[in-house]
Each structure stands twice: as C-alpha cells, then as structure tokens.
What does this fold into?
Amino acid sequence: MLEKEIREKVEQYSRYPPRRIRLIRDTSQFMEINAEDVLELDGRYYLVRGDEFEPRFGLEGDPKFWVKKAIDISDGSSKIIKLVFHESCYMGIGGLRIRCYRSPEKEARVLDKMRDDPYFMQGVTVSDDAGNAVRIVDRIRGPSLYSFMQSFRMDHETYFRKHLPGLLRSLMECMAAIGRLHKAGEVHGDIRTDHVIIERDTQVFRWIDFDFAYEWTENPLGIDILGLGNVLLFVLGKGFYDDYDLKACGKEGLAVLSTLTESDYSLYSRQRIANLKKLFSYFPECFNRVLLRFTPGTEVFYENTEELLDDLSACEPSL
It folds into this structure.
C-alpha cells in the first residue's frame, strides 16, 4: 500500500488528519510505539489508538505498554495487538514456590490450537521485521466476569436462588473449554475473573490472555485447576470474603470468625474464605464440598476439569 493510500485510510479513523505517518515494522521497542503510529505486519496496516490497561477491582488500572489498541485500516475492525514482552514472577501455593512467566510463543500456540472455538479469544500470530511473535487478536465486546458480577445489587440469598443457576451453567461451559485446552496439550496459565469476557451479542463466556505459563512439573494442570476453583468461589459467593468482611458485621461476624480454621480458607489466596457454608446457612453442602477441595485441608485435589465438572453437575439439582 502506498503512503498516500495509507494516509487516506488513516484519516478515516483519526479525529484529526495526521501531520505525518510513522510506519513501524519492528515492534521491539514497544514503549516508543504511540497513538497514531501505524504498524505494518504481514502486509496489513494497523492504526494504533493507545495502550490497553490492566483492570484491577473495577478500576482501569495500569497501562500495558506491550499491548496496543488498534484498528485494521483495511476494514475498520478493532484489534488488540500483543507485542513481545518477557517477565516472570513467583506464586506461592501451600509450601511451594512456582515460577510463572510470559511466553508469547505459548500464546501463539493456544491461538492456533483453539482456532474457531467460540469459548476462546481469536487471533493470528505474525512476525514483524525483527522476528517478534506479534499476536493480533479480535476484540471481544462485553464486560469481564468480574465487572458483570458487580451488577448484582442484591443480597446473596436472592442472587443465589434467582440468578446463580443460569450463571453457573454458563460458567461450567466455560470451564469445559479449559478441559479442551488441556487435552490439546496447553494450559491457560492465568485464570482469573477478569480473563473471562461475556460476549455481548452471544452471552458466551470467553477466555482471553493466554501468554502466561508456569513451571510445575509435578502437577502441570495445577495452576489452571486452582484458578478455576477461585473463579467458582467468586461466582458462588457473589464475590470474595475475608476476615475484614466478618469483622465489619459486628458480633455476628466475629462469632463466625472465631470458628474459622486454616482449612476454611482458599489455597489459591489464603485470605479468602472458601467455606461458604459458614457464611450462608442455606448454602448447599454439595457445593461446599467442592469448594473445600480447594483448601489446605483437602485430602484429594481435583486432577482435571472433568472431575470438577462432574461434581458440579451432581450439585446443580440443589439450586
């Protein structure tokens, strides 16, 4: 595409006509890529609109400088362009210290293996002029599961009886998709409530962001399974609860707090209360037994998503 043609296309999607077109073919220095720049990738052109942000607790959060909002100027479609960025951290599970790290190559594999699966974000991986694995992802329109849950402005019992049955069914279908991913030889790596997007048009729960991997050879699916348990706790509880929430409830909350032991808290996040039966008397024992298998007190952990889904299916009649 000639520069004149690129300029004409860019002007269709820019608020102001650009003074000049800065064409970028090597994305290695992603901090220097700004709004109104144009990325040339695999013969297509993408107008950068800015950086994506990492949401935290309903807030916009911190900018992700390696993830760009963009428009494909050939058709105006909205894209998320994920550039190569490496980082690592450690996660504590029980007495274990597990290394987690970003892997663009792993995310590229997942995009390829889960192509056309409606429960996963869709995109392609291309190489820029420096050989970087750039992922070009279709934007999913809709709220994250975390944001969606904030819309339930009611007490837990009303939510549990009126809204949870349908919500749980959608979540279970979403969990089954992780099972398909595992059978394909991959893991998600970063299962969280803000990594599920509820697509506005279809209401399908779709997984996003697959670029985290982890080193846990003894239990290669372990972090994903624990992540699913954490998401399940969030949905069953209509949020997370900790000691501070109980203290805020006065004498009644303090009485409950005095009964809690280490085995009542989540293994994934040790401050979160997993034994919901102690918080809500009407909470079914069947579901509570599932949640307690994600705590330090369990004798048997879930080994795969099929085991978890079988137990949840058996619990559904109790709703």
Q: What stands out?
A: Residues 145-318 form a domain with the Transferase(Phosphotransferase); domain 1 fold (CATH 1.10.510.10). The chain has two domains: 3-83, 145-318. The chain has a mean pLDDT of 95.
